[in-house]
Amino acid sequence: MPKRKSISNPVVKMDSLKWVVFSMLGLILLVSPYNRALFNGEQVPFEMPVYYAILASLFLLFLMLFYFYRHGRLIHVRDLFGLAIWLVPLSYFLSTFQAASPYYAKLAFFISLVYVTMFLIGIYCTDGKRLRALHFLFMLSGYTLVIYGFLNWFGHAEYKDAVLSNRLSNVFQYPNSYAAYLLGLLFMNSCFTVTLKNPVLRMSNSLMLVPITLSLLLTLSRGALVVIPIILVVSLIVLSVGKQLHLIMNVGFGFLLSVLIYDRVRQIGINDHSNWQQSLEGWLYLIVSSVILAILTFVCYLIEIWWRKRFEKKNRELNRWKIFVIPSVIIVLFALLIGVILQDNSKLVQWLPPNIAARIQTLGSEDLSVVQRIVFVRDSMEIVKDYPLFGAGGGGWASLYEQYQSVPYTSRQVHNYYLQHL
Fold first, then answer.
1. Is residue 157 within 8 Å of residue 148, measured between CB atoms?
2. I need a surface site. Which of 22, 40, 44, 97 has the fewest CB within 10 A?
3. Sign of the CA dihedral running 121, 125, 128, 130
4. C-alpha separations of 190 from 243, 246, 393 in Å
5. 3-state DSSP assignment of residue 314
6. DSSP category for residue 164
7. What is the pLDDT of residues 293-341, one digit of tens each?
8. In 10 A of CB 370, how many CB atoms?
9. What is the pTM of this model?
């Protein structure tokens, strides 16, 4: 009797390929942040970790292209996005022909391929269980980074420039970059907290909210504080009214507790770290505040249930429009708040810790940092005028800014991603 040939299932093979890609992505998410957060500083010390990441990503890109070869069909909207994302590396590739720095232009092109790889993995390999696993990996990577930041703040670790000029910058080595990362992590944490069905999981997840908000305050990033209401509004419009209230209360309590312990935790961080008792005190402040917030999260959960039973189930048709009420109110309140803060000697700002109040009051003023950013924008636009079609390539600003600067300064970054890309 002839033996049956084993029939391999192509669907199973493709599913296994997705898990291989996903596992490597998880490894990159957990390991790469500690290699200078893969920042392209356009200087030799930053290059080696970037090259390792490029090699790993190119291997993943090869696997993704193999997947498209076997199953590539333009049948979904996501497939159009999968094609459109290639315009990013194309723009970098075209700029290499007239680049101010051919070496860094090519490096920027390869980095853009990393962006493409991560985007393609995001839209093709994160369905079902993998999507939930990706959420978990993002949160795990973020939470370990936040804890590592406090290890540096309290003197238990010594990562280069993790604390820069008494501002927390962690592995990003620049406070504003760390603040931008924390903004994303803050609202991922908040949205997960209000959407998890199990109240125990909600409380567990909320334990990290105070460390995140406190880290955000310790960066002293004015830009992050301004952007928070905008991201809050975007997050709220995808939630029901009950969950909106829960999220606002959660974030509000997180910042309130962080402000209450801010002065003492900051003082511990900038003091001599040889006193282990002070470091222990800092951790106690952090842990106790986190536990208090977890309890408050459970209270918010009970309020959300009461609201849902009392109001939302009765008038489902009206609820479609109610979700825009709270975000609209936040926009109005934020506009009024900015107006009050920008007034001299605003009593509202005086309730904040002194150094945070001082940072906020310099918004819109002739502060040196603000003036410098305006100068960077003007000078970068002069470069764009001379390279209007394809740009000056990656590293263009670092190579050319001294020729175009209107006043003397030193900055290898334009501090504006859009202008840097132009």
1. yes
2. 44
3. negative
4. 10, 9, 38
5. coil
6. E
7. 999 999 888 888 887 777 665 555 555 667 777 777 777 777 776 666 6
8. 14
9. 0.83
